Amino acid sequence: MKEQNIQLDGSTILVTGAAGFIGSNLVKKLLCEVQPVYIIGIDNMNDYYDVSIKEYRLKQIEKLAEEHPESTWQFIKGSIADKALVDSLFEEYKPNVVVNLAAQAGVRYSITNPDVYIESNLIGFYNILEACRHSYDNGQQGVEHLVYASSSSVYGTNKKIPYSTEDKVDNPVSLYAATKKSNELMSHAYSKLYNIPSTGLRFFTVYGPAGRPDMAYFGFTNKLCNNDTIQIFNYGNCKRDFTYVDDIVEGVKRVMQVAPEKKNGEDGLPIPPYAVYNIGNNQPENLLDFVDILQQELIRAGVLPEDYDFEAHKKLVPMQPGDVPVTYADTSALEEDFGFKPSTSLRDGLRKFAEWYKDFYIK
User: Is 331 a residue whose pLDDT tops 70?
Assistant: First the structure.
């Protein structure tokens, strides 16, 4: 186990993508578990998916912030691709810890709308790195730890499973994956040049209540409710390491508290204080089994009628461009360094999603 070297209590934390799925859950966790904490959230609230879900997440955060008056929550609507805005946030709030979760997500969307991936995932991330670099100007304490979202997509068509952070990841099969790999490379360079402690997290298929509607489980639910047919890719022979959102944010919080150590090599120059971890369930599930449990839980929650004919609403189809047949995380480094392994079962996670879906859409 690595020793905590970052104190979150009393610290100022910048969370980018704060209205996003993982970002909003992280902010809620920090408000509940760290006292006091000063959180600045930024999100551009784009309409890649239903903005009302982002607004719902922000309302939940605001409610929690009222319950924790010892802490502060400040939300800024804006884009990390806006360099002047990012610089002004760092100048005004001087964050101790930065968690960069703002990114254009989605594999398939990157095929039709590449521009937004370059803007958010490359230019936006560059702006964050530059702001971290200049946070040390004039002898200031600066950013103690930059934690950022990478993705399991970086593993591309790697044949060896489970995927390990030791594996070579030079064969992305989508622009999205290429931007995430680029983030890791850029971060490494900045860690080396400016001694910025940074940790990248490769997330594996995150799901849960108030999740992203572009994710398969959410899209399937919408279609089943509309009596449409769902398409199951690769004829159902896909396996995904589905990871429940609460497990993800627990992992992120633990990682935030352990910044890679600053030390010099034999040449007297800094060894990059840089790390990358997988956060996944370490237990890939067959897509067909996943969808079967999903429909059972949707029936149980009253989202679908009890006599719903699931078989009549599914269609097995070939693989889509940019997709991979299996994602499977080797999480041994995460367990070893942080004593943590995701543990929420698929049924428990999908049950919580189904209950939320009913409350949000059906009541």
Answer: yes
Q: What distance in Å separates the CA atoms of residue 54 and residue 59, rounded to the nearest whole number?
A: 9
Domain count within the chain: 1
Please check whether residue 14 is in contact with residue 95, taking contact to mean a CB–CB distance below 8 angstroms: yes
- Domain for residue 226, yes or no? no
- Cα torsion 153, 154, 155, 156 to 10°: value is 70
3-state secondary structure of 277: strand
Query: What is 126-153 written as a DSSP string?
Result: HHHHHHHHHTTGGG----SEEEEEEEGG
> What is the CATH classification number for the domain harbouring 54?
3.40.50.720
- Using the predicted structure, report yes or no on whether residue 72 has a pLDDT greater than 70: yes
Enumerate residues 6+ apart whose C-beta is below 8 A from 23.
15, 16, 17, 41, 43, 99, 101, 102
Please give the helix or strand (H or E) that residue 299 lies within, else none.
helix 287-300
So which residues are the catalytic ones? 176
CA-based Rg of the chain, rounded to a whole angstrom? 20
